[in-house]
């Protein structure tokens, strides 16, 4: 397969996301990591910060030449049209993800029948990681080193340290 789009908030990127990117690169030659910039949602990190954080993690892991990091605002199907890539990849963690992911999958296909979504089951060690939980634990000073790349742990520390 040529290329996949991996859309998400990545606020921040976790080891779970990294696992999905790494495994996507076994199926596709190239992955477009698409970061949602949505005014209706509140993010901890600005979209520019998220771009830089993902790029650093990609460099640290040797994936930089096989990915492109883009920002999108609006419908994912519009991004598919813009990139000329109609296959999305999403990670599925516990059963709780299933309902929401099914709704998104069906809506994307309704809006643009050319769009297909590949779901990768999360690896066991990352099945219960989410950016939200990571942020909460980091906020209270808990250890998140197993859940996010080391550079991201530093960004979280800096963000919360600067805020307090
Ligand atoms: O990492 P997330 O927050 O689970 O990612 C959600 C994302 C970005 C994939 C989803 O919110 C999305 O696709 N947003 C774009 C708007 C859109 O296309 N909506 C229609 C499909 S439900």
State the end-to-end distance.
46 Å
What is the overall number of helices?
6
Helix content: 40-55%
In total, how many beta strands? 5
Average predicted local confidence, pLDDT: 95
H/E topology pattern:
EHEHEHEHEHH
Rg, rounded, reads: 15 Å
Poorly predicted runs are none
Helix-strand category: alpha/beta
β-sheet strand percentage: 15-25%
Q: Ligands in the structure?
A: 4'-phosphopantetheine
Q: What order do the strands of the largest sheet run in, or round the barrel if closed?
A: 1-2-3
Can you give a write-up of this model?
Helices cover 45% and strands 19% of the residues. With 164 residues, it is of the alpha/beta class. The radius of gyration is 15 Å and the shape is globular. The termini are far apart. The model has no long low-confidence stretch (mean pLDDT 95). 4'-phosphopantetheine (PNS) binds next to strand 1 and helix 4.
What is the strand and helix layout of this fold?
Blueprint: E1 3-8, H1 15-27, E2 30-36, H2 47-60, E3 67-72, H3 76-83, E4 87-92, H4 96-111, E5 116-121, H5 131-139, H6 150-163
The structure holds 4'-phosphopantetheine.
